[in-house]
UniProtKB/TrEMBL annotation:
One Pfam family from the record: ADH_N
Domain Enoyl reductase (ER): 10-314
EC number(s) on file: 1.6.5.5
Top-level taxon of origin: Bacteria
SMART domains: PKS_ER
Organism field: Actibacterium lipolyticum
GO MF annotation, one: quinone reductase (NADPH) activity
UniProt enzyme class: oxidoreductase
Gene name tied to this protein: qorA_2
SUPFAM superfamilies: GroES-like, NAD(P)-binding Rossmann-fold domains
Record keyword Oxidoreductase present: yes
Annotated region (Disordered), positions in chain: 1-24
Classification lineage: Bacteria, Pseudomonadati, Pseudomonadota, Alphaproteobacteria, Rhodobacterales
Protein name in UniProt: Quinone oxidoreductase 1
Length: 317
């Protein structure tokens, strides 16, 4: 099978395109012929070995996962013993959060893992929606009906998912984006959209139950005036001088939980929930651009610019 492999930390140039034997499904596993995958912030950070302490999980000197890629959409082509939920020919999508492996023509994963049947006639390149939504859900699941939230950076894969997931929970959503993304945020259901290029969103004189930094470019200190008493600030990155991580640990010790760097959980359950939301018309992927598998290095370079809108897709040969 064709695969993109990495054997050391570094820039996109360290990725090698080559041929490997296809994996064989074990007991309770399915094998998926991958038709589409993505390149996202998780992939670029893992390729670089950033932040350094994350190497305790990804490998100290070189990546443990020699094939990156979390999102996949494709067709089940084989199944191991004990599998009844899927049959060869089933169109499926999902994520592989522990072992990655989707930057290849085939991927094996547990049949009871984070995989679900693709709703309706959704194309494969429209079904690679799991990774950003999973991270967004780890924060938006805190929301309750009638609460107010502000999402900063509501134009990336996590931010666009966060707006939609927050609305499914019956909350009032204020999205903060640049000028070119204002109409997109409105179309996704945001109740109000602020342009950070012309307005200081931290000085609007309002407070929220949740402030979610979906791009990791602000801090609790900057957003503190926006928080209600007991309000939560959550971010997808460590923040300046790792302040989000430090404050999250501190507030965790004091029991207030006012700052958090979310760690998503229950990937299988969430992917099933996401399939239901898509089928009900309550969630859709937002896509920036698509690259053929042969140009996957260029896709990594583009994602590293930090300028993408939504999801960057890789189509397999």
């Amino acid at each position: 099978m064709k695969a993109a492999t990495v054997h050391r930390y570094g820039p996109p140039e360290t990725i090698s395109l080559g041929e490997l034997p296809p994996p064989q499904p074990g007991v309770g596993e399915i094998r998926v012929r991958v038709h589409a995958t993505t390149v996202n912030r998780t992939d670029t950070a893992t390729l670089r070995g950033h932040p350094f302490f994350a190497r305790a999980m990804t490998g100290l000197l070189r990546p443990k996962m020699q094939i990156l890629g979390m999102d996949f959409a494709g067709v089940v082509d084989d199944a191991g013993d004990g599998v009844s939920a899927f049959q060869p020919g089933d169109r499926v999508f999902g994520i592989s959060p522990d072992l990655f492996g989707a930057h290849a023509e085939y991927i094996c994963l547990p049949a009871d893992g984070a995989v679900a049947k693709i709703p309706g006639a959704l194309r494969f390149d429209q079904a690679v929606i799991g990774e950003g939504a999973w991270y967004a859900n780890s924060t938006t699941k805190r929301l309750r009906q009638g609460q107010r939230c502000l999402i900063y950076g509501a134009s990336g894969a996590i931010g666009t998912a966060a707006v939609q997931l927050a609305k499914t929970r019956g909350t009032e959503v204020t999205a903060v984006v640049g000028q070119r993304h204002m109409e997109l945020a409105k179309a996704l259901g945001a109740d109000r959209v602020l342009n950070y290029e012309t307005q200081d969103f931290t000085a609007i004189g309002e407070t929220f139950d949740l402030v979610f930094d979906a791009v990791g470019k602000t801090s609790w200190f900057a957003c503190r005036p926006l928080l209600k008493k007991g309000g939560i600030f959550a971010a997808t990155d460590l923040g300046p001088f790792s302040s989000n991580l430090i404050l999250g640990a501190w507030f965790g010790l004091t029991g207030s939980q006012r700052v958090g760097v979310p760690f998503p959980e229950d990937a299988p359950g969430f992917i099933q929930q996401l399939a239901e939301l898509v089928a009900a018309g309550q969630f859709r992927g937002v896509f920036d651009r698509s690259y053929p598998f042969s140009d996957i290095k260029e896709a990594f370079r583009y994602v590293e610019t930090g300028q993408k809108t939504g999801i960057v897709v890789i189509t397999m040969p």
